[in-house]
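Lab notebook, page 48
Experiment: co-folding of the full assembly
Goal: obtain a model of how the components sit together before planning crosslinking
Operator: M.T.
Materials (sequences as entered):
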Amino acid sequence: MRLELLGLSKRYPGCVANDAVSLKVEAGEIHAILGENGAGKSTLMKMIYGVVKPDEGQMLWNNKEVEIKGPAHARQLGMGMVFQHFSLFETLTVAENIALYLDPSELGSMAALRQHIEQVANEYGLAINPDRKVGSLSVGEQQRVEIIRCLIQDIQLLILDEPTAVLTPAEAEHLIKVLKQLAAKGCSILFISHKLHEVNALCDRATVLRAGKVTGSCVPRDTSPAEMARLMLGDGLTLTKAFEPGPSGDVLLQLKDIEVPPTDHFAIHLRQLNLSLRRGEIIGLAGVAGNGQDELVDLLNGELSATKGQVLLAGEPIQRLGVQQRRHKGMAVVPADRIGRGAVATMSLSENNLLTGCITHGAKAGLIDWKVVSARAERIISHYKVKTSGKTEMAGSLSGGNLQKFILGREIEQAPQVLVCFHPTWGVDVGAANLIHQQLIKLRDQGAAILLLSEDLDELYLLSDRLGALCAGQLSPVAPKSEVSLERLGQWMAGQFDAQHDKETCHAD
Amino acid sequence: MDIAFIDNVLFATVRTATPLLLVALGVMISERSGVLNLGQEGMVLVGAALAFIAAYVTGNMGWGIIAGAFAGMLVSVLFAFIALSLMANQVATGLALTIFGTGLSAFVGADYVGQSIAGLSPISIPLLSSIPFIGKAFFAQDIMVYLSFCLFGGLWWLMRATRLGLIIRSVGENPEAAHALGYPVRKIRYCAVLFGGAMAGLAGAYLSLAYTPMWSEGIAAGRGWIALALVVFASWRANRVLFGAWLFGFASILHLLLQGYGYAISPNLLAMLPYLVTIIVLVIMMQRKQGGSDAPRSLGRPFSPSR
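Observation: model returned without errors.
Model output:
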């Protein structure tokens, strides 16, 4: 037995994060931890890795009782952890980040370390340049750095906290391959995920947590995703089928020959973007991360300006308008980055609601009507099932998925004409994702136009009326969902736009 | 303008730059670890007062220097306890520390105002000190100037090439991640703050033992503040800190020279020169660098390991 937990508990003021959790992990086993947001999965992993001290309970490591004094101790024992919010230093290089992770005794010269990094990177197919600053890497690449950092030592247990939540489908597939390769060498893996089909494909066993307690365990291979979801949610919820496309109306948002040159080395050059988004429809844009999604969202939000082309909102050019002016005209944007762009961590939920909500309610002549604001915040919390102690809780203390529910709720409740949402259900549990999907469809049926950028193909097929993809700053054709096979979408994501599109771009020229 | 004149200007430039360099190097280390200590001016003053008293009482310059550094460090312990252990706001704590240090130094130094000591004597290094232009500036200074050169070299190397430097940077960049990797964030920050305190104390000792060998209230004359600004404009890099300190020193001498030559500019305006020149030049240098600022990401943000 590689790892055995016996009755581990952790209490925080006002909540029990883990209540007598027990589980066993064999050598070479890939073990999934399933559960909704706030079920206590991350806390459990942090206790195993020594970041958080358990209040009660025992831990056996290779059949011997241990008390983990801290992460350094955990590493010495042969554990490695890839955090959900990466624990990397953005202004340092990849090699420096890895050097910090290693014990001084294991760390030779930086040149030797660089070589070692490249060797591990090659062995597992995780290409990385050791001299790049981590801040300049994409999220997927940053995760690679975290994984290499663990693999550079001989490890017996690798803990991954929602590793695929930030990855594109191709990257996720690759990661699964890497993990299988590792497990085959005898390394045990603890894997937290929301994506049930991944757990199905990868894991030998799964333990399900709900509200800090173990509510069941299963062998994913013999259990359908629907059954696992039921174990997690406990209320017999089933996975939704695709929504029917609605009738679409006149064009609400239009991009004409948009050209946005990159603002720095790592930005993507948006070229020749043409898109017409109609009233009552959802256009889903697929794409591997870092192919211009950030730039497109910034452009629509009014943070980036195009050097060529037009952005039209209901026929009116808005490319010169600022973020607030666009919002006044009925545009709303849900950014990918919840803390920092979507919400202010150190402000309460009420105040965060007011940040964009003040346009439609709660503020008159520059004065705040707190009654209205609070009522709205409470409504969002109850309506979107945001798990929080109340409207006065700081946004930063909510889990990622819960905050996402709140931010989406805030935007949807303002009944925008055009909603741009980027990764609406990133890191959100099945139940909440379901709810968000239904609200988006409801908004669409009320006549709003929605541009959905996501890396979750299931979600794109579920929600979109029309589908397209971004690749290297260029837009593929956008076609009705029924005409876009998964294969075709994959080609678009790889930049192989078909002849029809070539005609279109020629036409645009 | 003969060689001896330039010799003297450079000599005075380095002397004027020394206290600033000492404080700024200390600020650099503590800020790299993520702690913003605005109490520099107070620590310099307490260092200066105690260095003078110790040297006056014992008659030994060595004890003066040690007392200065030690006093600066003691005052910084106060800051570290309030800002790091009690997690009070670092800006407010630092400002309070400056006010406290100003008062404390005036109080303990009251009986010593107007007393004088011999001051640190220069040590000429044979041969090297007779190099034209730079010989006098770099090789005929007192022991504390040499010490500041060594500290500069050591810290430049520390931040550039050592694991400890990397750890200090990581703590200032992302303390949660450093904690998760098992680094004792609070301990490292304590050490960095205490080191900064000792450096400020040393700067004070230089002022009251060498630069103007006497004690008077407010002897630091804003050097603690200018050092804080200098570190920001120098992008937290030791070599730029050195450059900025020398620039400041040179502009200080220039303003004396201009006054000496009888230019019809108000001496009060000329006295602004060093501050203006240093800041303008460093701001321009900072502008030219691309890719945003190098500020430690968690500068001034309290960190609690129990979260």
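Interpretation: Chain A touches chain B at residues 50-51, 70-73, 75, 83, 86-92, 96, 99-101, 104, 107, 264 (CB under 8 Å).
Next step: discuss with group before ordering constructs.
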